[in-house]
Automatic annotation (TrEMBL):
Alphabetical keyword list: Nickel
The protein's name in its UniProt record: LarC family nickel insertion protein
Transferase as UniProt keyword: no
Top-level taxonomic group: Bacteria
Organism whose genome encodes this protein: Peribacillus huizhouensis
């Protein structure tokens, strides 16, 4: 089951849910596994924050964003795969930018650049990390050098 991505046009999504649990007794090895399961089951975002809980115990705040149609699946994963005894969730509105993709050619290969557009203007621009990482590993060059080449190629191709 793959995650469904939001559409690339600018829009406001009023059907989002933010879910969260406090975890103070979960092995660290489980957290990556849980994150993968949540993404595979349709979470739009999953993240962890270190927190201090009652009695000053260190813990983890697991938060995720998903569509309201995914609440039951997310709860099932959280209850079955973590040590939580309760899940908090509440509605959330998300304003998503329009996304456009272009390609640039570097000396090592082609890289996709994602642009975020707000009200018709490009306000964000970033190379696709996984593509840059693969080039860096394949050609044994520093990742930052790949990024430098991407931006240089981008400016030259404009």
């Amino acid at each position: 089951m793959g995650a469904q991505h939001p559409p690339n046009h600018e829009h406001v999504d009023e059907q989002m849910i933010k879910m969260e649990v406090n975890l103070d007794d979960i092995p660290g090895e489980w957290l990556g596994y849980v994150m993968d399961l949540l993404f595979e089951s349709g979470a739009n975002d999953v993240f962890y924050t270190p927190i201090f809980m009652k009695k000053n115990r260190p813990g983890i705040l697991l938060q995720l964003l998903c569509s309201s149609s995914k609440i039951n699946k997310m709860k099932e994963i959280l209850f079955k795969e973590t040590t939580t005894l309760g899940v908090r969730y509440y509605p959330l509105t998300v304003h998503r930018l329009e996304r456009m993709f272009s390609k640039v050619t570097t000396e090592w290969g082609i890289v996709t650049i994602k642009e975020g557009i707000y009200d018709g203007q490009v306000v964000q621009r970033a190379p696709e990390y996984d593509e840059c990482k693969n080039i860096a590993q394949l050609h044994d060059v520093p990742l930052k050098k790949v990024y430098e080449q991407v931006w240089k190629s981008f400016e030259n191709e404009k």
